[in-house]
Design goal:
Blueprint: E1 6-17, E2 36-42, E3 48-51, E4 69-76, H1 77-89, E5 94-101, E6 106-107, E7 110-111, E8 114-122, E9 133-142, E10 151-161, E11 164-169, E12 178-183, E13 186-197, H2 214-224, E14 234-235, E15 238-243, E16 249-257, E17 259-260, E18 274-282, E19 285-296, E20 304-310, E21 313-314, E22 317-318, E23 323-330, E24 336-341, E25 382-388, E26 398-402, H3 409-428, H4 438-447
Antiparallel strand pairs: 1-4, 1-10, 2-3, 2-5, 5-8, 6-7, 9-10, 11-12, 11-26, 12-13, 13-15, 14-17, 15-16, 16-18, 18-19, 19-20, 20-23, 21-22, 24-25, 25-26
Length: about 450
């Protein structure tokens, strides 16, 4: 399998120094009490925002500090070519950063923050798909006043190669489509996807492809799933098996906890989510690799909430504490991207994998162990993404997997199975007042 070239543009290590006025005035920014944030823009990409910490004016920013990532832009080959081509006829593309004091957000359409100043970093992106480049690392003066009285803004901007394998389903996962590898204009079949259901009341209808070892398979599914058999509104028993070109099963996603409407409502709640187990073959049976939980968020977001955690295996036994690699929300109307990126910070200020204060490789229930002490810290930077369409839209998920995280066919297949599970979770979490498409209604009618 040949990867596609991608470039990862990272903005990190933000900081702000503002001279303290000898005589306080209403217009003076007081670093001890005034919050600060910035908006980061790259042409043709959605803007990103990040908090900017203050540091004392007599301090220097330590170069040895673990990078605090503020924003990441992922450039495909075509996007990179467009930006590079423009630089031959006009000014080089620039990263533009607007710095504000005050709280983020708007009131009646008016920004709450007050603009402190803007900085611009020219980008020479030619050749960055094969070689890393640093565009800026240090301080920039903000404002037009004398240098001694101006604010100083620190940032690091760099681009580095981030090649990825790209896969695309040739149809919706519940329609058992083929999965193609994409490289430029070339589409090559690499996997097939088999959707089926496990009727808990009739074991004979279980998918044979999920039973490398029937006894062991049932024990895995039972140990991670829920034995609840509630009457009423629930969706359960869905499974997807990924096969290679020879027809051998190389990964699977099995719904082990039913998606059940919370009492008195038509939605799957965060407090009682449904879940999938992502399985990989090993030693003649299926072995659990990860667990995906999904639910329907309440409130104005009304989206698909999800959490994915890695299941560590120690001395042949599966540990109880999972390693959370991704937790976020997707719009139920517009869809979005399911992303595992252990090198990005959260835009809402919460600790996320990749934030040095909360390593993505820490067990979910045991605090911060540090990057080098946990055996599953092989996952670094961008890991994978999977596209998810909104409710009622035709979905043909595209899956991107970082090259360093694929050592064999089973590695790639596990991420493809995970992408299928998150796509199907959009249907599993639909309001129970809405009817699913026929491929999924068949299952719902049997077990409802």
């Amino acid at each position: 399998m040949d990867p596609c070239p991608f470039v990862r543009l990272t903005v990190a290590n933000l900081a702000l120094k503002i001279p303290v006025a000898s005589k306080p005035a209403p217009s003076v920014v007081h670093p001890s009490s005034t919050p600060c944030f910035c908006k980061i823009k790259l042409k043709n990409f959605p803007p990103q925002s990040a908090l900017v910490p203050f540091i004392p004016s007599d301090h220097t920013f330590p170069d040895s500090q673990v990078p605090q990532v503020a924003a990441i832009f992922h450039l495909t080959k075509s996007e990179l070519d467009r930006l590079v081509a423009k630089s031959f006829f006009a000014a080089k593309p620039c990263l533009k950063i607007s710095i504000y004091t005050g709280r983020r957000g708007t009131t009646c359409g008016v920004n709450l923050g007050k603009l402190l100043g803007r900085v611009s970093v020219p980008l020479d992106l030619a050749g960055t798909e094969t070689k890393a480049a640093v565009f800026h690392n240090g301080w920039i003066t903000v404002g037009r006043e004398a240098k001694s009285s101006c604010a100083q803004f620190h940032l690091n901007v760099k681009a580095e190669p981030d090649p990825r394998f790209v896969f695309q389903f040739d149809g919706e996962p519940e329609c058992s489509p083929q999965v193609f590898q994409i490289q430029g204009h070339i589409r090559q079949p690499v996997f097939s996807c088999k959707f089926c259901f496990r009727n808990i009341g009739d074991r004979n209808q279980r998918s044979r492809s999920l039973q490398l070892d029937p006894g062991s398979s049932r024990s895995w599914l039972t140990s991670f799933g829920s034995e609840r058999e509630r009457p009423g509104k629930e969706r359960k028993g869905w499974s997807v098996t990924i096969h290679d070109l020879s027809g051998s099963p190389v990964a699977a996603a099995s719904m082990v906890t039913p998606f059940v409407a919370s009492p008195g409502s038509d939605r799957v709640s965060r407090s009682n989510p449904g879940s999938w187990l992502i399985l990989r073959p090993g030693d003649g049976t299926w072995k659990p690799w990860g667990r995906l939980e999904a639910w329907r968020e309440r409130g104005s977001s009304d989206g698909l909430g999800y959490r994915f955690e890695l299941i560590p295996e120690t001395n042949g036994a599966v540990g109880a504490a999972g390693i959370v690699l991704a937790e976020s929300t997707l719009s139920s109307k517009k869809g979005g991207k399911f992303i595992i990126d252990l090198g990005s910070s959260s835009s809402n200020g919460r600790a996320t994998p990749g934030n040095p204060t909360s390593p993505g490789c820490s067990p979910r229930s045991s605090g911060d162990f540090g990057y080098g002490l946990w055996p599953y810290c092989m996952y670094r930077g961008f890991v994978m993404s999977g596209s998810v369409e909104g409710e009622g839209r035709c979905s043909k998920p595209t899956v991107e997997v970082s090259v360093p995280h694929v050592n064999c066919t089973e590695d790639a297949a596990a991420f493809v199975a995970l992408a299928a599970a998150i796509d199907l979770s959009m249907d599993a979490c639909r309001l129970f007042s809405q009817r699913l498409r026929k491929e999924l209604n068949h299952v719902q009618d049997l077990v409802g």
